[in-house]
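With this grant's support, we have settled on a layout for protein records. An illustrative entry appears below exactly as we store it:
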Amino acid sequence: MAAASSCPSFLFFLLLSTALFVSGEATSLLPLANLAALTFEEGYTQLFGDSNLMLHGDGRTVHLSLDERTGAGFASQDLYLHGFFSASIKLPSDYAAGVVVAFYLSNGDLFEKTHDEVDFEFLGNIRGREWRVQTNVYGNGSTAVGREERYGLWFDPTEDFHQYSILWSHQRIIFYVDNIAIREVVRTEAMGGEFPSKPMSLYATIWDGSTWATLGGRYKVNYKYAPYVAKFADLVLHGCSVNPMDHRTVSQGSDAGACDSIRLSTADERTAMAKFRRKHMTYSYCHDRVRYRSPPDECGIGPEAKNFLPSGESKLGKRHGRSSLGAVL
C-alpha cells in the first residue's frame, strides 16, 4: 500500500491550496497539480495484458499496448473514498479507429449491479481525424441514465504527454485537462444515489472498442497498425484510502474529513471552463432528446441549447477544431 496516498498529506495540500487562494498568489489547483507522482510498484498492480504492460524509467512510466492478442491494464492497489487522481498520457498515433484508452475510477468489481464510475475515455479515429475525449459519471449502477459528454482538444494528444486529472469530493467531481477545468458535476438532491459515493479504485486500460467507439462501430480496429501503445507517466494518487474489508477510511478524524471538503472552483477556473465547453464540446447528454424526452433534473438548459441537435451532438462540430491554449483561456 502506498503511504503517500493517505489523507494527512492530502490535508496539507488542501490547507496550502486554501492559503494561496486567499492570498491571490495562485489558482487553487496549483498545489494539487504539483503533488508527487508514485512509481508503479508504490501504487499500482497489473490487471491484464501480461507482456503488453511494460515499465520504463524505474517504473515511473507505463506503456499499455493493444494488439490482436490482447489489450492491457492496471489498477491502484488501494481503494479510495474521494481524492485527486492524475496522469500524463500520450495516445497512439496514426490510424486508431476503434481503439479505446481509459483513465477512470470504478468499483464494478465490488458492486456488480450498483457500481459507481468516473471516466476519462479516449476514443480513437481514422487517419486524419482527431481523437475524441469523453467523460462519464455513473452512480449506483446508473449507466442507463448516462451523464456522458464528449469534446475535441486544442492540441494533438498523440504528439506529447498531456495531463488528465479527476478531483472527486463529497460534493463535486471536476475533470481537468492540463490543469484547466473542463467539467464540474455538483452533487444535487435530484441526483440522489446517482452521484458516485462508494469507494473506488483507479484504473488505466487500452482495449478494442470496435463495436461502438468510432461512429457507432462503423470503423473497426485495424491490427495492421498494431501494436497501439498508450503511455502513462506522472501517476498521482492522493486521497482517502479505505479498508477493503469494511470500506472505512484508514485516516481518522479531521484528516478523513478533509477529503470531503475540497472546493477548487475559482472565478478564473470557471471562466476557462466555460470557454472550453463553448468551443470544444461536441456532445452533451443534457441536450440529447433521443435518449431523454426531458433532460435529467440536474441539467440547467439555457440559450446554449440552440447549438445542439436533438441527438445531443453539437451543431458547431466543424468549428470544434484545435486552437491555441490562449484561445481556450
